[in-house]
Amino acid sequence: MRGYFAIGAEGLSKRMNLGTLMRSAHAFGASFFFTVDAAEKIRKAPPTDTSKSPGHLPLFSWDSVETMDLPRGCQVVGVELTDEAIDLPSFGHPLQAAYVLGPERGSLSEKMLARCDHVVKIPTKFCINVAMAGAVVMYDRHRAMGRYADRSLTAGGPQSDRPGHVHGGPIMRRGRIVPGTQNSGA
Hints:
- 19% of the residues lie in helices and 20% in strands.
- By secondary structure, the chain is α/β, with parallel strands linked by helices.
- The protein has one domain (4-145): SPOUT methyltransferase, trefoil knot domain (Alpha/beta knot).
- It has a 7-stranded parallel sheet. A two-stranded antiparallel sheet has the order 8-9.
- The longest helix is centred in the C-terminal third of the chain and has 16 residues, at 130-145.
- It is globular.
- The model has no long low-confidence stretch (mean pLDDT 85).
- Keywords: Methyltransferase, Transferase.
- This is rRNA methyltransferase.
- GO terms for molecular function: RNA binding; RNA methyltransferase activity.
- It holds the Pfam family SpoU_methylase.
C-alpha cells in the first residue's frame, strides 16, 4: 500500500481506549500514533495494548492542537458526527493522512476541526466507542487503498482475481533513460 497514515485522538481520558486503539493501529499498519490534550495518566501505552505497539510505531503526545507537529503534506482527517462531514464509505482517503478522533463523551474541539483538511463520519445512528470508530476508519482506508479484487455483487467471494501491479513508463533524466528502469534496454 502506498503512502502512510497515523491515527490518534484528542482529549482521551480512558486508558483502555488508548490501548485498544493503539493495538488496532499497529495491526492495520499505521506509521505512528498520537494523542492531543490527553489526560496525563494515559500518555503512555497501557496494558490493554497487548501487541506492545510502542515498540513498533512511535507514540506522540502533543499538549494542544497548536503543538501538533505532523509531517509536511500530511492531511488531517477529523472523524466526527456532523451534518457537514463526508460519509466514510464515500470518502477518498489522502495518500498521507493523520486521522483524529474525539474524546469519550465529547466531540473534536473547534480548534481541531479548524485544523482538519477533511471531516468524515461513520454512518451510524449514534456515536460508537472511540477505539471501535478508529478500527472502522482504518479498515475503510485499508479496503479503499489496498489492491483487492472488486467486491462481489452477490453473496460470496470475488469473481475475479486481484488486479496486478501496473508498471509506469521509463524514468527520464536529461533526455536519457535511467539504467535499470523498465524499457531501458539494460
